[in-house]
UniProtKB/TrEMBL annotation:
The keyword Repressor does not apply. Pathway: Cofactor biosynthesis; riboflavin biosynthesis; riboflavin from 2-hydroxy-3-oxobutyl phosphate and 5-amino-6-(D-ribitylamino)uracil: step 2/2. SUPFAM superfamilies: Riboflavin synthase domain-like. Lumazine-binding repeats lie at residues 1-97, 98-195. NCBIfam families: PRK09289.1, PRK13020.1, ribE. This is Riboflavin synthase. Gene3D superfamilies: 2.40.30.20. Catalyzes the dismutation of two molecules of 6,7-dimethyl-8-ribityllumazine, resulting in the formation of riboflavin and 5-amino-6-(D-ribitylamino)uracil. Its EC number is 2.5.1.9. It catalyses: 2 6,7-dimethyl-8-(1-D-ribityl)lumazine + H(+) = 5-amino-6-(D-ribitylamino)uracil + riboflavin. One of its GO terms (biological process) is riboflavin biosynthetic process. PANTHER family: RIBOFLAVIN SYNTHASE (PTHR21098:SF0), RIBOFLAVIN SYNTHASE ALPHA CHAIN (PTHR21098). Keywords: Repeat, Riboflavin biosynthesis, Transferase.
């Protein structure tokens, strides 16, 4: 599990292609190295990856084809920067919201509005069906950053970013057309899906009458 509080950024120094997967090697910030072991979980742009090798501060991770397909990590080239968060430990402060590191979809940056003290960025999800889970003032993970949703339309949503977030994460350097990873808040997803299933099972009085049944008390 992760908290969505990015602990630092890391440079991808090598991308090695293999028949069925790809290996990324990053230069891990010194502050995030203590206690890091092979098999540990580290989020890259919000995507949970497993450490496969450590040599000094160079840390390697293997990415399966599905990870490369669903996330923006398939676009990564040597020299690119990724947001990094190590897995949360019991007793850690949860400054953002609980995140699993499982990316649901990506989103394209379609508008950037900059003012003196903050920046508003609009996103269009690749899978627009995910918009039903993106609610005004709800939680969302964007490239591993826990953020509050601002305005929402049928196909787009925005977030407001303070200077600290822009400075500490990769969002400060994002451009129009670039993709970010999206993780939906699982509690919101569970509530929306449950309500949809309940509504699908309910019958209106007219539907019950067509079947020759009396509507239940919850249907009247």
């Amino acid at each position: 599990m992760f908290t969505g509080i990015v602990q630092g950024t890391a440079t991808v120094v090598s991308v090695d292609e293999h028949p069925h997967f790809r290996t990324h090697i990053i230069q891990m910030p010194d502050a995030l190295l203590p206690g890091l072991e092979t098999g540990a979980s580290v989020a890259h742009n919000g995507c949970c990856l497993t450490v496969t090798g450590i040599h000094e501060n160079y840390v390697s991770f293997d990415l399966m084809k599905e990870t490369l397909r669903v996330t923006n990590l398939g676009d990564i080239c040597p020299g690119d920067i990724v947001n990094i968060e190590r897995a949360a430990r019991f007793g850690d402060e949860i400054g953002g919201h609980l995140m699993s590191g499982h990316i649901m979809t990506t989103a394209e940056i379609v508008k950037i509005l900059t003012s003196e003290h903050n920046r508003q960025i609009w996103f269009k999800p690749a899978d627009v069906a995910q918009m039903k889970y993106i609610l005004h003032k709800g939680f969302i993970g964007i490239d591993g950053i826990s953020l509050t949703v601002g305005e929402v339309t049928a196909t787009r949503f925005c977030v407001h970013l303070i200077p600290e977030t822009l400075q500490r994460t990769t969002l400060g350097n994002k451009k129009l057309g670039q993709r970010v990873n999206i993780e939906i808040d699982p509690h919101t997803q569970a509530i929306v899906d449950t309500v949809e299933r309940v509504l699908e099972k309910r019958e209106t009085p007219a539907q019950a009458e067509q079947k020759g049944q009396q509507p239940g008390p919850w249907q009247e």
